[in-house]
Amino acid sequence: MYVIRLPDGTLRVPHSVLGDSAPDGGDRIIAQAYVEVGPDDPDYERLLEQSITEAELEEKRRSWRAGDAELLRTFEEWKAEREG
User: Fold this and answer.
1) Up-side HSE of residue 77: CA atoms within 13 Å toward CB?
2) Whole-number pLDDT of residue 24
3) DSSP per-residue string spanning 16-80
4) Would you give the DSSP letter of residue 14?
5) What Cα–Cα distance (Å) separates residue 39 from each residue in 16, 29, 48?
6) Quick check: helix, strand or coil at residue 81?
7) Hey, is 2 helix, strand or coil?
8) Domain coordinates of the chain in residue numbers?
């Protein structure tokens, strides 16, 4: 997950939570979400340095999907050679 910089300067920062869902503590919940951080937050400048825009995140996703398609094609070729 990335720190996302919104057009208004607010940052969406990944936040993970680990908790118990059952009284006996047997079940664990892991949640990942974003919290919004504004310029008044003490960590804002540090987080701003590592942030990306929503457009940059979408471009990363597109490149991952393209890479996944190439990897799948390569695997299918390898698999066909092994079966044939």
Assistant:
1) 6
2) 67
3) EEEEE-STTS-SEEEEEEEEEE-TTSTTHHHHHHT-EEHHHHHHHHHHHHHHHHHHHHHHHHHHH
4) E
5) 22, 31, 9
6) helix
7) coil
8) 4-83
Dihedral Cα 74, 75, 78, 82, nearest 10 deg? -170
Is residue 82 helix, strand or coil? helix
**Which strand (E) or helix (H) includes residue 3?**
none
User: Could you tell me which residues are beta bridge partners of residue 16?
Assistant: 32
* C-alpha torsion angle, residues 37, 51, 29, 64 (rounded to 10): 150
Coil, helix or strand at residue 83: helix
pLDDT of 15-69, one tens digit each? 987 777 666 666 777 788 899 999 999 999 999 999 999 999 999 999 888 888 8
Task: Say what the pLDDT of residue 58 is.
Answer: 94
